[in-house]
Amino acid sequence: MSEGADDLFALPGLSRSAPRGGFPAHEMFPQVAYEIVHDELMLDGVSRMNLATFCTTWVDDQARRLMSECLDKNIVDKDEYPQTAELERRAVRMVADLWHAPDPATTHGTSTIGSSEAAMLGGLAAKFRWRKRGGTGTPNFVCGPVQVCWEKFARYFDVEIRQIPLRGDRLTMHPDDLAEHCDANTMMVVPTFGQTYTGLFEDVVGVSAALDALQREKDWDIPIHVDAASGGFLAPFAAPDLVWDFRLPRVKSINASGHKTGLAPLGAGWAIWRDAADLPEELIFDVDYLGGSMATFNLNFSRPGGQAITQYYEFIRLGRAGYARVQSAIYRVAQHLAAGLRGLEVFELIHDGDPQRGITAVCWRLTGDPGWNLYDLSDRLRSRGWLIAAYPLPADRGEETVMRAVLRHGFTVDMADLLLADLARCIRQLRQRPFSTSLTREEAGGFTHTASPAVPQTTIAASRS
Ligand SMILES: *Cc1c(COP(=O)(O)O)cnc(C)c1O
């Protein structure tokens, strides 16, 4: 290396393009490789301005430290890391308690990589229970507009998904639609407690009552699995009297994403069963643990331990009082944003951040046709760094476009004001200089992956390609 060439950006690795095709032939200094990767990531969006995501984008320094300290802990090695296993077990009991399991100390539950894995486990348990009850043929499950993980579950595990289309001006699954979609092979009904499309809670009490009526009439005892991916760590604190969990005897399992409103870093989910007996033995694999054995039931084998550990940290750090304060603060920001959106006089609010009705999100649509659409607005906002999803409602409402902002820990009133000012500016620009033709969903960019695209109506057996 010639003298003077020791500046990082004068080193050979940085004087040509980064390797991107075949496996690289040569090595480079770690500082150089780091700089290449670090700098390339500058093109990513700013996660805290990404209001399309439900997931954690802010954690405190202690959480960061724990994540870094636990980098080398494999959660599957229960015998080697017994205290990691112990912290996970404590967290399971805490979540079971939070959701009113009859006996939180003895019921089954597990951390997962997210709600998708947790949903698959809940679905698989329902499938095994259904078969044990004598079910034959292809089982089905009934739901409203669901997150894409349920379509995945149906296709991967050969189960029929029956999504109830949204009739009239409905935005959630309605209990009075259930009878027509259930039959003797219905292995579960899955209400979403915090819908992906709108953030609204589905009516779990109503669903449960409708299934009670169906049992009286037809003798079908259909269990409920609640997909509480985002609502599971909100309602217990911000709307504690809202009944949606194990207080309803028909609810046999619940999933939630620790890495959404649970405030844990990415890669944390929870699956909890009402009672140990609700998790069929066939799904349990015993592993060595301190000279004995421990039940495990996961789709993954190796998985990082830091997420469950950091979730436990968040639980003991905040407790019920702390979670209530954090979540109420975010709801207040959501309500502030909703009020500001109303003030712009072009939007109608579908969800305005009411903790009794939905999650810490705001969802809105245009009241008329101003000559631009929500994809145009989403695109304009992107030029200021805001990532806000615009997408069509699910069947049968697929002609209607909505916009949704999910607010999370770390989003402040001040940021909401900055966003509102940018919204007003973008709307002014669209009025003055409208696009000659409005953007389509595809042109506006694809950060709407958390919303399952409109699905074919009625009963689809994993027909989407
Ligand atoms: C996010 C979400 C999921 C998927 O959860 P992951 O944690 O991202 O795997 C499932 N259902 C609903 C309702 C969601 O919001």
Automatic annotation (TrEMBL):
Source organism, top-level taxon: Bacteria
Reaction it catalyzes: L-glutamate + H(+) = 4-aminobutanoate + CO2
Matches recorded under Pfam families: Pyridoxal_deC
Keyword Amino-acid biosynthesis: no
Region spans: Disordered: 441-465
Ranges of Polar residues composition bias in the record: 449-465
Range of residues in the leader sequence: none
Keywords noted in UniProt: Decarboxylase, Lyase, Pyridoxal phosphate
Cofactor or coenzyme needed: pyridoxal 5'-phosphate
Entry-linked InterPro entries: Glutamate_decarboxylase (IPR010107), PyrdxlP-dep_de-COase (IPR002129), PyrdxlP-dep_Trfase (IPR015424), PyrdxlP-dep_Trfase_major (IPR015421)
Catalytic activity, EC: 4.1.1.15
GO function term, MF aspect, one: glutamate decarboxylase activity
Family membership noted in the UniProt record: Belongs to the group II decarboxylase family.
Name recorded for this polypeptide: Glutamate decarboxylase
